[in-house]
Design brief:
The chain has a 4-stranded antiparallel sheet with strand order 1-2-4-3. The chain contains 6 helices and 4 strands; from the N terminus they run H-H-E-H-H-E-H-E-H-E. The protein has one domain (about 5-10, about 20-170): NADH Oxidase. It is an alpha+beta fold. The longest helix has 21 residues, at about 105-125. It is globular and about 60 Å long. It binds flavin mononucleotide. Flavin mononucleotide binds near residues 12, 133, 134, 136 and 172.
């Protein structure tokens, strides 16, 4: 797919089939993420590729965390939370490495990881897959971070759900860039 076509036709695919995504496609997608620009070449993204039972484990962690917060939560609500990671055959959890060297800036690492996320979304779309970038409270959840071996003060930029789309959807019509743009001469 041509670059502008890929950018302009990408959409968030909410409904994904359960079919597995071939490993070579996932490697292409991860490689695209890894090509994102990043200051000082620190490659601050940390990519966790979940498929199969690891999605159930993530669901268990989320359910346990919700029960910590709301011990009286109805079983059905907890079951729903547990099932959330099963909405896609693959989830790429994208974490952000905190700066080690003094010159590296945390916000810039987050910016670079956002660029990696967009590359991942575009690569998935170009390969005919569906993808959606999800966050929610789970991206800030201490137990979820622990599950991925991330420190509590580290950022999870998102959980990118990937699979074959149930329905190929048209990209939403966007307002023009004009009202967000100032031409300065
Ligand atoms: C940082 C970030 C977090 C997002 N979190 C969610 C989310 O938790 N749930 C969701 O349904 N979509 C989420 N989205 C996707 C947006 O809702 C989606 O991109 C937006 O509605 C525009 O639709 P489009 O991607 O089809 O153009 C997120 C997008 C970004 C960039």
């Amino acid at each position: 797919m041509e670059l502008f076509e890929t950018i302009n036709t990408r959409y968030s695919a909410k409904n994904l089939k359960t079919d597995a995504v071939p490993r070579d496609m996932l490697e292409k997608i991860l490689d695209a993420g890894n090509h994102a620009p990043n200051h000082y070449r620190v490659r601050p993204w940390r990519l966790f590729v979940l498929s199969g039972g690891s999605r159930n484990k993530l669901g268990e962690v989320r359910a346990a965390s919700q029960l910590d917060r709301m011990p009286d939560a109805p079983k059905e609500a907890i079951d729903n939370i547990r099932a959330l990671p099963l909405r896609a055959p693959v989830i790429i959890t994208v974490g952000v490495e905190k700066p080690v060297e003094k010159k590296v800036i945390g916000e810039e690492n987050i910016a670079a990881v956002s660029a990696a996320c967009q590359n991942i979304l575009l690569a998935a779309h170009a390969l005919g897959l569906g993808a959606i970038w999800r966050t929610g409270e789970w991206a800030r959840d201490a137990k979820v971070k622990e599950f991925f071996g991330l420190a509590e003060d580290q950022t999870i930029s998102g959980f990118i759900y990937i699979g074959y789309p149930e329905i190929v959807t048209e990209s939403a019509v966007r307002p023009s860039f004009e009202d967000r743009t100032t031409w300065m001469e």
